[in-house]
């Protein structure tokens, strides 16, 4: 029997659509696996009743198939489904690490990125790695279309505020513009480069400035009740940057040093002003999945 933990993540970070991601120190999913003749799945924790236990419909079933590693799998959800915090990716990453260890497959964390991405395809229809890469590798990650991923360790405080609303991934994809102007392209590339440099330097001011995105974030923000007020409140409380986390509805903020608690409180209050309940995770860029 093997147990592994994999962290929640935040993808896109504004200017890095389908490319950038970060691991969060918490929350996280925990997956326990035990050898079996065929794969079976149990789920407990946050939103467990909404998660299918049929291996053909669950991300961990796809991971077990990809590794040829049938097992009884128990998922303890710490990351709420449909949160914009990489819930399915955390399960897929933890399962990949646990099954790799259980069956002694010998794969590295980088090797497991495309394996875990196959699990993501069960949920989204496409094998995106922008969430599974940071969940497996930790830190700040950049993924490529060839399933390659680069990770950078960084020391950065974060606040992830999760409102009590649901934004479907389908709707979040539907509102993404199909084209952009040359000016928008140049601005986005410049912001993404600034963000990457800030991550390498663990510089919250650079990261915050680099999160600005003129294309995807404004479209997705319209799906999140209270977003504009939450964004404004976070900046007033000491954030350097604010954006939609993944497909939403979570909102991610980078606080100035010593301002994480104030930013978290301001974001929760901002949602409350819009009539929406919310909880804030005072977190930071964290480590990737590991066997416990």
From TrEMBL:
Belongs to the GHMP kinase family. Homoserine kinase subfamily. InterPro entries: GHMP_kinase_C_dom, GHMP_kinase_C_sf, GHMP_kinase_N_dom, Homoserine_kinase, Ribosomal_Su5_D2-typ_SF, Ribsml_uS5_D2-typ_fold_subgr. Residues 62-139 form the GHMP kinase N-terminal domain. NCBIfam families: PRK01212.1-4, thrB. Catalyzes the ATP-dependent phosphorylation of L-homoserine to L-homoserine phosphate. ATP binds at residues 80-90. Keywords: Amino-acid biosynthesis, ATP-binding, Cytoplasm, Kinase, Nucleotide-binding, Threonine biosynthesis, Transferase. It is an enzyme of class 2 (transferase). It catalyses: L-homoserine + ATP = O-phospho-L-homoserine + ADP + H(+). It is found in: Cytoplasm. Residues 196-271 form the GHMP kinase C-terminal domain. Coiled coil: none annotated. HAMAP family: Homoser_kinase. The lineage of its organism: Archaea, Methanobacteriati, Methanobacteriota, Stenosarchaea group, Halobacteria. GO terms for cellular component: cytoplasm. This is Homoserine kinase. Pfam families: GHMP_kinases_C, GHMP_kinases_N. One of its GO terms (molecular function) is homoserine kinase activity. Pathway: Amino-acid biosynthesis; L-threonine biosynthesis; L-threonine from L-aspartate: step 4/5. The gene is thrB. GO terms for biological process: threonine biosynthetic process.
